[in-house]
Write a structure and sequence with these properties.
This protein is 69% helix and 0% strand. It has 439 residues and is mainly α. The radius of gyration is 24 Å and the shape is globular.
């Protein structure tokens, strides 16, 4: 560990700060559906997710190696470049958290790294083949694969559960399934996202001369990255949990189970192959697929559109900030200090803005009467109002299996109740003071 300079220590601390923001930014990926359906209480859910994120960090280093050995030329960059990359990633994470949008922490990190590397060493220092095959293609494929898998899994779940729908044993079964699948997503998140910080710290250690090239992450790096992401997860990114759990679609336990299981399968498979996958993309795609898989389910496309825009901006936005930060750091120690002060000040300002409308475990499932940051319609941060079914939703609903027997029975009681309510009681008349109904 010789040559462990001050700038290298700053880079490591900043990387762990990013890992912490990654934890609370992506808690929604594992626990939003479980919390929104009531399968688990919010605080218990994030505590379980934190523990499993920590465990997952020790299961593999394939993704860490993709970051530290594959994405950029590690011989052509300095620790200041990595510090600049982390600045871009952290600021993007905090901004999207403030407005309640589930964006990719992974892509923010890689965007910052690419931008800072290009500013420092030119385009030749970025390995384009790795960027395309292990970052961009999975970014497009992951939400599509997870969404289709969740949609068909939802249909299959409703089809197989027709006879037992509405029973207590069925409800308990789906609740247990949701908890298990949410735990699997948390474990998968630890194996994928915690490794990205391991990779970036390892890259910094190699660039600073503290590690030999092509080294695997040291044990202390694995432990510290796992602890940082677990602490962030326990803090809970309640704004994004609200958007993911209530803003995209209204989920029933069957859908939550299908969405979480599909997303976990995609994430774990990608981690095994070394793909630097966005867990946010996978889980968001699975939630939308589960929404389309239930007859009558509505995906709120206005919220989804805002998410898609954020996804498209993540890489370039973080890259621009990373490049600018690297340009300032190039001036020497005072430049690095200036960037550090800017990062701390901006983070404090964003946190102060978030205090204007607090979202926490006590109101994370509230969607009426809230007007938080990122909302202009009275439904809270990032939560869209109810929408009429769009073209995609209507098309999928047309070929979705019919509702369950329990749902049909519930629907059949509505006309009878309405008729009973409309039948006047002898000797009584309408109340002149009662408000008139409008159509």
């Amino acid at each position: 560990m010789e040559n462990f300079s001050l700038i290298l220590a700053i880079v490591v601390i900043t990387a762990l700060a990013f890992d912490f923001t990654n934890g609370f930014h992506d808690t929604a990926n594992a626990m939003a559906t479980t919390i929104s359906t009531g399968a688990m209480k919010p605080k218990i859910a994030v505590a379980m997710s934190a523990v499993l994120n920590l465990v997952g960090a020790f299961l593999s280093v394939e993704v860490a190696n993709t970051i530290s050995k594959g994405l950029v030329d590690e011989s052509g960059i300095q620790p200041e470049v990595i510090f600049a990359a982390l600045v871009g990633a952290i600021l993007w994470n905090l901004l999207t958290w403030l407005v309640g949008l589930p964006s990719s922490s992974s892509h923010a990190l890689m965007g910052g790294l690419i931008g800072a590397t290009v500013a420092s060493a030119g385009m030749g220092a970025v390995h384009g083949d790795v960027l395309i095959t292990k970052v961009l293609i999975p970014a497009i494929a992951a939400p599509l694969v997870a969404g289709l898998a969740a949609m068909f899994a939802t249909r299959l779940t409703y089809s197989l559960g027709k006879k037992s729908a509405g029973s207590k044993s069925s409800a308990k079964g789906y609740r247990a399934g949701q908890i298990a699948s949410a735990g699997l997503v948390s474990l998968a998140h630890g194996t994928n996202d915690a490794q990205k910080t391991m990779g970036i710290i390892t890259l910094a250690l190699v660039a600073g001369g503290a590690l030999a090239p092509d080294s695997d992450p040291p044990t202390w790096v694995i432990v510290s990255a796992g602890v940082a992401i677990a602490l962030g997860t326990y803090l809970g990114g309640w704004r994004i949990i609200r958007t993911m759990g209530k803003g995209l679609t209204d989920l029933q336990p069957q859908q939550g189970f299908a969405a979480q299981t599909s997303a976990a399968t995609v994430i774990l498979a990608s981690s095994h192959l070394g793909f630097s996958l966005s867990t946010t993309h996978s889980v968001s795609g699975a939630v939308m697929g589960a929404g389309l898989g239930r007859k009558g389910g509505v995906v709120r496309w206005s919220t989804a559109t805002r998410m898609f825009v954020a996804w498209g901006l993540t890489l370039p936005a973080a890259a621009v900030v990373g490049a600018l930060a690297e340009w300032v750091c190039r001036a020497g120690a005072w430049g690095t200090a200036l960037v550090a002060i800017f990062l701390v000040g901006s983070s404090a300002w964003i946190w102060k803005l978030s205090r204007r409308e607090i979202v926490d475990h006590t109101n994370v499932n509230d969607t009426d009467g809230d007007t938080g940051a990122g909302s202009t319609d009275g439904t809270g941060p990032g939560v869209a109002p109810d929408e009429a079914p769009g073209v995609v939703t209507a098309a999928v609903a047309a070929v979705t299996p019919p509702p369950t027997v329990a749902a049909e029975g519930a629907a059949a009681t509505v006309p009878a109740q309405a008729t009973a309510a409309a039948t006047p009681v002898p000797g009584t008349g309408p109340d002149p003071a009662a408000p008139k109904a409008t159509v």
